[in-house]
Amino acid sequence: MGVAPIKMPQLGESVTEGTVDRWLKKEGDFVKRDEPLVEVVTDKVNAEIPSPFEGTLVKISVTEGTTVNVGAEIAQIETEAVAAGAAAAPPAAEAPAEAPAEAPKAAAPVAPAAAGDGARTRFSPAVRRLAEEHGLDLSTITGSGEGGRVTRDDVLAFVERGQHAAAAAPAPAPAPPAAPPQPSPPRGEGDQEELVRISAVRRQIAEHMVRSKATSPHAWTLVEVDVSELVKYREAEKDGFRERHGFSLTYLPFVAQILCEALKEFPYLNSSWTDEGILLKKYVHLGIAVAYPDGLIVPVVHNADRLGFTELARAMNDLATRARGKQLKPEDVQGGTFTLNNTGANGSFASGPIINQPQAAILTTETIERRPRVINEAIAIRSIMNMCMSFDHRILDGQTAGGFINWIKARLEGWTPASLRL
After folding, report:
1. Most confident of 69-78, 169-178, 406-415
2. What is the pLDDT of residue 207?
3. Active-site option among 34, 117, 137, 397
4. Is pTM, for the whole model, over 0.70?
5. Known catalytic residue: 397?
6. Nearest of 260, 269, 63 to residue 149 by alpha carbon
7. Span 123-165, pLDDT tens digits
8. Which candidate in 294, 302, 318, 393 is catalytic?
9. Domain ranges across the chain
10. CATH 2.40.50.100 corresponds to the domain 2-79
11. Terminal alpha carbon distance of the chain
């Protein structure tokens, strides 16, 4: 018998931490190899992490709602055959295997992990920090985590209910009569306001977006594209395509295939900024932004430039389906070199997307509309789609970015069935 550590996996390039959102097993449960063990959230993915071992879950080291670094131990499984060094992911910053829990000030010594009130006296750094920000006494909060431990969501819910007023420190002495204290303005009119707790997914997305805007000086461009011929082809072929392949034919794979070709012609669009220089990538791992109820995920089609049209369409459909069903694996969100987003699915006419770090740019396709166009001195009704692109102005200037997006525009406007690379 031996004990194997389960560690926080790296769920995407540039991801350095993850949040334990929900444990799918509890201490004492028997876990099969590859059986879902825990849900982990980052700004790139919300994924169920399978157990790399078969055995008994003897210790949950990280409570729900806690954010830890990649490589940190989150649990331990007792198993008969422990592979040397095996874990859910390679460690990034090794933490001590048995760091003692910090006890609250002026409290009695904390007992080892045990059910009941004793388990509640151990709090994660994130929970303690949040409590300090709001001036809360954690002993007054009922925990919903394993063994009654208090999670970040418990603290936020406590703040939301306004119960911290009773647990707060005594109010300061009233001001002199000459300057009587003024009552605080009401928080809201009855039920006309509602505080919605921020989910782990939304918090991670927010932090990633802020980092991206702070890291890259974003510039933006837009072009109009006449996709009339492509629309005619898709309308004629969509029913037969579904019958042959079992999924819908959308416009996005057409754009994706041309985009992959464009990245070969304009290599600086398929690069990343580093302190040593601009890192050009000679492979195309295409990120496809997928919206789902909890937020936005960008799974990656690896080596998209090597796939024929049907293979590419199938891979994109598979990733989107699994993303919406929260069935992505860690490798599904790793290594992206460029991101494509179909904001037109929401009826968008134009958008200013935020770059998915550490990539150089992100392209959006907008809604297709019937609009009047002047062709050979005559007015015709055509199918028009806007394409928008945000790019890192450290890497690219307007001339290169404009050349890239107009190269794609020209290929889409001159599209014929012979353009398909099968």
Report:
1. 406-415
2. 84
3. 397
4. no
5. yes
6. 63
7. 665 667 677 777 787 878 887 765 677 777 777 778 777 644 4
8. 393
9. 2-79, 120-169, 214-419
10. yes
11. 53
